Write a sequence for this structure.
């Protein structure tokens, strides 16, 4: 049970220490105390019983004895006595206790206060409105009696029985009457609760009105709706300053689903100026009753109204310096106008007013000051703030001062934003410093950097920046101040680039270099100068240029596609047929006629320009298979570049590669490998960390060229080129020193010097740029801020959509032209979007600086508009659109485009990019069809990632919800059959088998469907279910003849599956080898390298059984190398599995060691993939036997038998291997038993199986050793018949000889035949 407790709003006043009264004590002969329920600095609250009525009451006893406290207590009692409303705690009585202490008795309430409720559970919108309406009605009664509460906050709003609609207003201890009265304020103390006080309370203005309570209720409303206080800050002084200077985060930026009318009501309650605020509670009640109730429908799409963005028109952010000063001595009384504080306030206001500064004294005696970079210099405002700090300490010694610089909103009475929060954090750290010594002036790092060498600054051992005292004494080459500037200080880097290019051309050898340097270090300028030198040499060179953009980082539309489109003059928005014609016209210029169409068609996939499948059979064959498509695109790119190189050197420039894509990185790496003997050079430019963003970069083939800062001589030369040869040497030296070698910083410093804006230091470049943007005319700045939403590139239509027609008007082109002349943006001669003029920020940091000036509350609306405009304009990169809608708080649209992007990246074989997009979509909590779409893709992709657990768990859950026979359904069936089979889930597999064969594929899904039939046939064969496997084969041959005829991938997998059948079920290695060779041919024709791995591995198995271990190893290693090049986990795992099995059959110690290492990770810890785990145990058994570790060999072989028990073909192999080990160790009876088991398992499958003649040979040896001649000869006859049968399929004599002599079990059979029946019986 909760109860009313005393919550004094002012500072804790001194008073005598009084112990709690004993239970049953009586007050004024009327109230019997029952229990102490709360106490504070000014008294205690008891639960008591009114003996006259028998009712429970809350009885407050005053502890303090000061006259002020007594008067306040008496005033509270008299005010409550005159107020009657269900929403105001009921007065019962007041008077003096027997010990002379004043008391006040009020009704006893059951429930909890709002503060407790908000900690426990937030309010719903309906509960919040009910609470506000109830409190406003109660407060209207008080306001009608001329009473202002002055301390409204959640802990003073009691929820009777926990019901927000039955709230009760408590604690009128700070209430005051509007009628003239004796002031109870003897000193500058805070009357109210920081965080809920009105600005006029904070600044201690006279003449409070009821609107102060409205502001406090607005703070409560904001907290109920958002869960956070509107003016939260790390320190009391910062809280008070934020109330004066800043606006809270807009309501609908935190909760976009709330009605706009509610946001408007909240704005009217939190207006800084009382004249713009609702005047009293009765007006608030009327506003609430007029408020449209929220509809019952679910959340709708966020608003994208055509009205101008408030953050661009009136509330943009700007650079602001903040000063907070708090005295360590008691503040002066309010009436002492001669005190230094009062003199200082006036002096500061006079001094700072011309510079846009604001000074506000606050109720606790502290002072807040803000300075905007009004004239465009970040340094000016920081220097003024530092001078103010020193002036304050001079006038009021012992005052602690903090200085910060950051962004704030350009509206209201001032700006603070995050700068005020950092000031509060610094005040907190100041309070932790030991007492004594002079009060310091503490700065954040931005302010310290802006001050540069103007003031002596140090850093304390705790890391604080301290102001010590008075200031110290004295693409194309971008133009600077309208002048072209040389590329200085880069002679060594240019020489290296020229040497690489000449080597590339002279020796016809591919070269690649990655120029790497931080933002602003001059990478683009270096690239421009290098290309200009090539032009001066008049060397014929074909330049391909692709540029990264932050809005497209990691997207499926790559830099290479961009470069090819630019070469062909494509924007991506022309009619499809025209795009095809232009691609064919340019890309096929040097290609052989017979390869031109196919090569262009695959490059069209890279450029977002698909060609008709029927025109290019190979394109049709690989459509829908990301690995094969990726391989063919790579092959086409290589053919195109090789053809171009035959006529002239090719220079591929990839600018801003850190915003590039994994596909480009991989294709470039493959091109460098395949064109190593061609005059092909790659020049990539990126920021540090590009390796983390694009790990596919081929480090061995791409040398790095780090770009360091300019040396002093080069920087001085640049400064003199721009400022003129008569520039003072001291000035040039200072600029060079401050620039610290960063070319961009140096340029900005030169601009500032030329414009008389002072100096800055390099680490403050963002502040410098933002200050420079502040100098623009408001309309030009609005255009720049709007453009920043679209990324590095932007378009007139996009800017117009963001600003709204009313704001953009007809002058947009004029403002853009001004931005071009100011060297902030540049116009492009071509545009991606027809009819739209395209522009580009000259430097990414300018775009970043502009974007950061947009208030965070206005960014969602801006990104929604940007996303919608780009979508309507024809943006074909779903990841760009997804990013905008995510930032625009439109999750449904963001999820859709993230899912689409993930599918595109999956098709392009970019699993990492796909995973990033899927994670981004999942973070938005999709449900329904959107969630189903993602889960299906996740399950399908898990197979390629060798993650069969996710494959089966996610796949089983989503499969029933997919359309049977669709492409997605068929792909998922493929993955599920592979996954659940290798996990040993036979019954589930057989259910899938029935479902698959009973389902007719959709017309466009036939290739995917019959590929699933291939996989299903192989997986049921894993379990030895020959009948079910044959049903798949029959279905494929009968219903999929057309697919087999035209789809070489399905045909290749059909051949692989037949290879497995003949080898592992029927024991026909020669036939298996023939199938694997046909599979290899089909898959090579399709360019399906990932699938070709399987052809190599199965041919290795067949060659080993044919007695050709050398060729088997060669094929296994080729498969392994190909798998590593493809880079997908599943083929890598499969290739390792095969190579280990082949190597374990070798007597070479090195091979045995290698085999052990290949399978170690599958047994430590044990893999969940039972086929791989069982094979690993089999490999370890063979390795241990080869190394003479008999017991270890038997242990591993028995493990293999146990794990492979569900898989009949592999089980037969494992039993035979165990029998062979037992035989070698002299365990004849056990060997015979295991050989018989192996024979029995093979017989169930209807053939000899992969073990072949092995079990028969061991059985014959064991029977002869036991004296069971009849059984031995029977087994030997069967083994001989097997050998004769298999020899009929081997046509060449050398192959027959290898089969008989190089396969150990076959050779042993021949030896036994000679011993028993002589040479005449030999085959």
């Amino acid at each position: 049970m909760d109860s009313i407790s005393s919550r004094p709003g002012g500072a804790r006043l001194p008073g005598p220490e009084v112990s709690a009264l004993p239970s049953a004590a009586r007050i004024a002969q009327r109230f019997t105390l029952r229990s102490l329920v709360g106490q504070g600095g000014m008294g205690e609250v008891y639960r008591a019983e009114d003996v006259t009525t028998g009712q429970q009451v809350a009885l407050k006893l005053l502890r303090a004895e000061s006259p002020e406290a007594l008067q306040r207590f008496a005033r509270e009692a008299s005010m409550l006595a005159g107020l009657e409303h269900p929403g105001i705690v009921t007065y019962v009585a007041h008077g003096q206790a027997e010990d002379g202490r004043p008391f006040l008795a009020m009704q006893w309430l059951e429930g909890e206060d709002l503060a407790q409720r908000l900690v426990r559970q937030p309010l719903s919108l309906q509960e919040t409105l009910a609470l506000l309406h109830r409190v406003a009605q109660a407060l209207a009664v008080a306001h009608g009696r001329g009473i202002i509460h002055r301390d409204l906050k959640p802990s003073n709003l009691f929820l009777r029985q926990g019901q927000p609609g039955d709230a009760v207003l408590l604690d009128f201890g700070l209430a005051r009457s509007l009628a003239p009265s004796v002031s109870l304020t003897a000193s500058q103390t805070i009357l109210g609760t920081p965080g809920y006080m009105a600005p006029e309370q904070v600044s201690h203005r006279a003449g409070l009105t009821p609107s102060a309570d409205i502001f406090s209720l607005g703070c409560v409303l904001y907290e109920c709706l958002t869960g956070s206080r509107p003016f939260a800050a790390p320190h009391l002084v910062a809280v008070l300053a934020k109330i004066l200077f800043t606006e809270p985060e807009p309501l609908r930026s935190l909760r976009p689903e709330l009605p706009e009318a509610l946001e408007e009501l909240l704005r009217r309650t939190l207006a800084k100026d009382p004249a713009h605020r609702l005047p009293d509670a009765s007006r608030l009640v009327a506003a609430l009753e007029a408020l449209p109730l929220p509809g019952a429908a679910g959340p709708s799409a966020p608003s994208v109204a055509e009205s101008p963005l408030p953050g661009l028109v009136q509330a943009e952010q700007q650079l602001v310096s903040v000063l907070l000063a708090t005295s360590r001595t008691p503040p002066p009384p309010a009436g002492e106008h001669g005190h230094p504080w009062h003199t200082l306030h006036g002096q500061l206001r006079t001094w700072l007013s011309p510079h846009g500064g604001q000074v506000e004294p606050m109720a606790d005696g502290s002072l807040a000051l803000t300075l905007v970079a009004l004239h465009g210099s970040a340094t000016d405002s920081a220097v003024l703030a530092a001078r103010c700090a020193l002036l304050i300490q001079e006038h009021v010694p012992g005052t602690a001062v903090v200085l910060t610089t950051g962004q704030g909103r350009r509206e209201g009475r001032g700006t603070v934003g995050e700068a005020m929060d950092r000031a509060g954090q610094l005040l907190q750290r100041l309070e932790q410093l030991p007492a004594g010594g002079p009060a310091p002036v503490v700065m954040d790092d931005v302010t310290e950097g802006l001050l540069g060498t103007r003031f002596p600054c140090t850093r304390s051992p705790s890391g604080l920046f301290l102001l010590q005292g008075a200031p110290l004494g004295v693409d194309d080459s971008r133009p600077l101040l309208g002048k072209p500037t040389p590329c200085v200080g880069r002679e060594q880097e240019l020489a290296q680039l020229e040497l690489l290019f000449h080597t590339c051309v002279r020796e016809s050898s591919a070269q690649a270099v990655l120029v790497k340097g931080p933002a602003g270090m001059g990478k683009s300028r270096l690239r421009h100068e290098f290309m200009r030198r090539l032009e001066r040499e008049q060397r014929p060179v074909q330049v391909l240029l692709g540029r990264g953009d932050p809005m497209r980082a990691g997207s499926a539309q790559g830099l290479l596609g961009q470069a090819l489109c630019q070469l062909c003059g494509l924007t991506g928005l022309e009619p499809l047929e025209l795009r095809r014609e232009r691609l064919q016209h340019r890309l096929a210029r040097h290609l052989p006629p017979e390869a031109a169409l196919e090569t262009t068609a695959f490059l069209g996939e890279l450029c977002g320009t698909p060609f008709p499948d029927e025109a290019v059979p190979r394109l049709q064959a690989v459509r829908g298979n990301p690995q094969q498509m990726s391989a063919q695109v790579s092959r086409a790119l290589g053919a195109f570049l090789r053809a171009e190189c035959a006529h002239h050197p090719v220079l591929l420039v990839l600018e801003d590669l850190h915003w590039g894509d994994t596909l480009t990185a991989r294709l470039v790496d493959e091109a460098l490998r395949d064109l190593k003997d061609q005059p092909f050079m790659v020049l990539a430019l990126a920021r540090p960390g590009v390796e983390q963003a694009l790990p596919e970069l081929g480090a061995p083939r791409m040398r790095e060229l780090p770009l360091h800062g300019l040396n002093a001589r080069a920087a001085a030369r640049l400064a003199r080129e721009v400022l003129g040869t008569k520039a003072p040497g001291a000035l040039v030296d200072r600029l060079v020193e401050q620039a610290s070698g960063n070319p961009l910083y140096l340029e900005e410093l030169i601009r500032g010097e030329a414009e008389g804006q002072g100096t800055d230091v390099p680490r403050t470049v963002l502040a410098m740029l933002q200050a420079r943007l502040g100098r623009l005319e408001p309309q030009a700045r609005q255009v720049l801020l709007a453009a920043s939403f679209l990324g590095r590139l932007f378009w007139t239509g996009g800017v117009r959509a963001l600003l709204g027609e009313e704001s953009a008007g007809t002058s947009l082109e004029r403002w853009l032209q001004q931005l071009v002349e100011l060297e902030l943006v540049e116009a492009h001669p071509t545009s991606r979007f027809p009819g739209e003029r395209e522009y580009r920020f000259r430097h990414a940091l300018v775009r970043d600086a502009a974007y950061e000036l947009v208030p965070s509350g206005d960014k969602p609306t801006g990104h929604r508009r940007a996303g919608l405009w780009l979508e309507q304009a024809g943006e074909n990169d779903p990841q760009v659109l997804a990013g905008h809608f995510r930032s625009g708080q439109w999750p449904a649209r963001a999820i859709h485009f993230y899912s689409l992007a993930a599918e595109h990246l999956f098709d392009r074989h970019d699993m990492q990019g796909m995973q990033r997009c899927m994670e981004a979509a999942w973070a938005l909590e999709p449900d329904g069809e959107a969630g189903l779409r993602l889960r299906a893709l996740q399950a399908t992709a898990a197979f390629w990632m060798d993650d069969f657990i996710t494959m089966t768990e996610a796949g089983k859950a989503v499969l029933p919800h997919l359309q049977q026979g669709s492409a997605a359904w068929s792909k998922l069936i493929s993955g599920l059959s592979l996954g659940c089979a290798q996990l040993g889930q036979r019954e589930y597999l057989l259910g899938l088998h029935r479902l698959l064969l009973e389902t007719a594929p959709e017309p466009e899904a036939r290739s995917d469907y019959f590929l699933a039939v291939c996989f299903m046939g192989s997986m049921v064969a894993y379990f030895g279910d020959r009948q079910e496997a044959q049903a798949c084969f029959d279905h494929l041959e009968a219903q999929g003849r057309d697919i087999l005829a035209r789809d070489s991938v399905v045909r290749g997998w059909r051949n692989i599956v037949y290879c497995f059948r003949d080898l592992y079920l029927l024991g026909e290695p020669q036939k298996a080898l023939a199938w694997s060779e046909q599979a290899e041919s089909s898959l090579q024709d399709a360019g399906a390298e990932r699938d070709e791995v399987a052809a190599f591995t199965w041919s290795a198995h067949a060659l080993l059984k044919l007695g050709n271990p050398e060729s088997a190893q060669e094929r296994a290693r080729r498969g392994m190398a190909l798998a590593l090049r493809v880079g997908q986990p599943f083929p890598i795992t499969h290739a390792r599995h095969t190579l280990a099995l082949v190597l374990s059959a070798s007597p070479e110690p090195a091979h045995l060691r290698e085999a052990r290492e290949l399978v170690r990770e599958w047994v430590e810890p044990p893999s969940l993939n039972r086929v791989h785990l069982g094979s690993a145990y089999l490999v370890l058994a063979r390795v241990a036997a080869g190394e003479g570790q008999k017991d270890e060999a038997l242990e591993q072989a028995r493990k293999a038998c146990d794990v492979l028990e569900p898989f009949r073909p592999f089980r037969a192999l494992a039993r035979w291997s165990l029998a062979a080990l037992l035989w070698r160790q002299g365990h004849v009876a056990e060997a015979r038993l295991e050989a018989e088991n192996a024979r029995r398992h093979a017989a169930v499958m209807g053939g000899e199986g992969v073990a072949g003649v092995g079990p028969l040979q061991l059985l014959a040896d064991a029977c002869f050793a036991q004296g069971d001649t009849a059984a031995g000869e029977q087994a030997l006859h069967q083994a001989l018949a097997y050998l004769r049968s298999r020899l009929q399929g081997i046509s060449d004599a050398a192959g027959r000889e290898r089969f008989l002599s190089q396969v150990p079990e076959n050779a042993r059979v021949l030896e036994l035949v000679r011993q028993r029946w002589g040479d005449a019986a030999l085959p």
